[in-house]
Write a structure and sequence with these properties.
- The protein is mostly helical.
- Helices cover about 80% and strands about 0% of the residues.
- Helix 3 crosses helix 6 and helix 5 packs antiparallel against helix 8.
- The longest helix is centred in the first third of the chain and has 30 residues.
- It is globular.
- The protein starts with 10 loop residues before the first helix and ends with a helix.
Length: about 200
Amino acid sequence: HTHAPEARGGLLAVLRQPLAHQYALILVLAGAGFGAVFAFQQPYALALGRARAGSFFVAYAAAAILVRVGFGHVPGRFGRHRVAVGALLVYAAVVLAMADMRPSWLALYGAGFGLAHGVFYPAINALAITAALPSERGRITAIFTGSFSLGLWLGPTVLGGVAERDGYPTAFVLAAAGILVAALLLLRSPELRAAG
């Protein structure tokens, strides 16, 4: 495993390291896609004539729990880096499919999204924890939480105007594009690849 060089000066010093700023950007983009899906899937489905949109949330939660309980060993067995990249590609595919939403498929979208998130979130977290020095792991965890949370806010905030002006399909396409950029950054990150 590789480790980031010893940093002094707290969180900002850690954030300046290649590992941390790549990791932060990946999580902001993934969080933005996640936030956009949870903000827009329900009003989009209702606008297309669906009476209720709760099946997305039920299927999402069930799939995410099932993956973490039944398939938690997958990242360790196949490699955290490879699994995280694959999960991001599934993330992007589900979000892109939702741009051409079929309201009767809400549970299917939810299950696919829950599957991708249930695999991606712990795999990407384990990657950075493994790559970081033991003395920096707390700060890396703070970067993880803060970056994903920033994305959760940015996705609906930035893409909300797009959805209002150009429609939900455009917002979903842009969210999927952001997730694909995150997958490319993760794929090309030597620090995260070495930790996987």
